[in-house]
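Can anyone check this?
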Amino acid sequence: MDILSVLTEKTQAALASLYEINDAVISFEKTNDNFAGDYTFVVFPYLRHSRKKPENTASEIGEIIKEEVAQVSGYNVVKGFLNLELSDDYWLAVTKDRVAEGVTVDNIGNNQKIVIEYSSPNTNKPLHLGHIRNNILGVSMCNIFKENGYDVVRNNLINNRGIHICKSMLAWQHWGNGETPESSGIKGDHLVGKYYVKFEKKFQVEYSEWLAGENGQAQLELFKTSKTAEKYIKENTELDKAFKSEYKNTYFNTISSIGIQVKTMLQHWEDGDAEVLALWNKMNGWVYDGFDVTYKRLGVSFDKIYYESDTYLLGKAMVQEGLESGTFFTKEDGSVWIDLTDEGLDEKIVQRADGTSVYITQDIGTADLKYKDFKMDRFIYVVGNEQDYHFKVLQLILKKLNKPYADGLYHLSYGMVDLPEGKMKSREGTVVDADELMEEVVSTAKKQTEELGKTEGMSASELTDLYETLGMGALKYYLLKVDAKKRMMYDPKESIDFQGNTAPFIQYTYTRIASLLRAADEVKYETPNELHESEKDLIVQMNSYSEAVNAAANNYNPSEIANVIYDLAKSFNKFYHEHTILGAKEANARSFRLSLSKAVGETIKHGFGLLGIDVPERM
């Protein structure tokens, strides 16, 4: 029985014997760093039963626990907080078990099946920094759930159809001159992205010329007298800018030459036009090949890939099902809706008047397909927080359709990634390209490592691997150490620093341990004559790792692991600087410290593995 179970059992017994409380739900928390102790029990909820001051109640409970639990060496009371101190013998026993058993994590999943959908790129552009956060969140959550005992399916839904895809296709047709990845030396997804940006630039020129012309100016004057303009006047927004934004879609759909051509191309695609499908297949093939290269470098893989071109019609049958059950209703124009006003939302369209699907229709159908394929207990969508409303609506629709899997839907909503220079804009080609960013961090890792003189005695191939490990580790860790729900600023230079809360600092700590172990004849646990404070702190920190892995799954938050590994690395470096390890005077102290170091190194490697980060053996 683990120590928390023992403490819980004895505390329940103490409450029963002292105050006749027989139904207490006991919980402990880690003792605040400002006070002595390892675990804290809060007694305030029981004062009405004890009818005593908080300090007296805590002391009475503490005396019983100290008497009954051999591992408790003492306690202290701070108001209503009972701080229990565990003995050195207990922590030494923990270390001995940890050295013998290796890293273990409690199985909280019991083989429940979870489908995790992440990446979900569009095939009109390469992956960028936002995609990197999405992918490494998805990969790390897959690793974490699997380690916690879940049966995990890694899933990707590629958005490979639609108006945005046709923009790239039309631009390549008009201005590509037959350019291919082979003829240009440009990676396939970058080449297609180049034409997406080119289309937008051509469109902006066309739109600007129209705005400045007679027809555009006439429409602007009409806009200035409209009710819509009144809103902008109240907001002190320039009407010229407001009109340009408001009218853009109308211009694209009804006036723009290339806009109308794109819409026609999309219609031809949906009608199965052989020429359009051939171009679509060719350009998507370029993108898939490009994605594969990026995915490989990021360490991203999937068990199942769905394609929007195969799934976008799946929801139409469920729309009919919803109409028959009365979940959906039809408006006068023939469009189909669902009323979610009772849930504090609004009415949501699920099928257009012309019978075509909207985005959520596809998600309804794909969710049903996933359940048929996997019979999952939960399915998790790793998608940015700009889609919070969408997934709230999706889950409500599935519940109203009485789907058995509706309650298992979870939106892992993450914040956007900003840069010191500001926001990214795909249409303007100002995104931080994933491939270029990976190349930059690896190059920076090389420069930093060489400046610190950490390359002596390593071959060229070993150095190449080292720079890759450090650079990619820096990128992934910097994005994962922040709570997924928070918006964050990514600073490439700061991420590669060898000091502070960074991957290189932790990786260097690991190589320090690896160097110690290489220098040792053998690593065999022995009990030391005494346990020093920094040694105990290190053991306590290491012992919290398994709880952090469980918490990362329960809270959908890899930063739980990143933070405990960083604290462990800090504790090890403190221990390393305060104590001689290889040269310890007592043989048993030397063996103990080497064993403890080995256990810490294994924990760092295990934690970084769950985050999708490698550790180097030498630096």
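Reply from J.R.: I decoded it. Residues 188-212 form the longest helix (25 residues).
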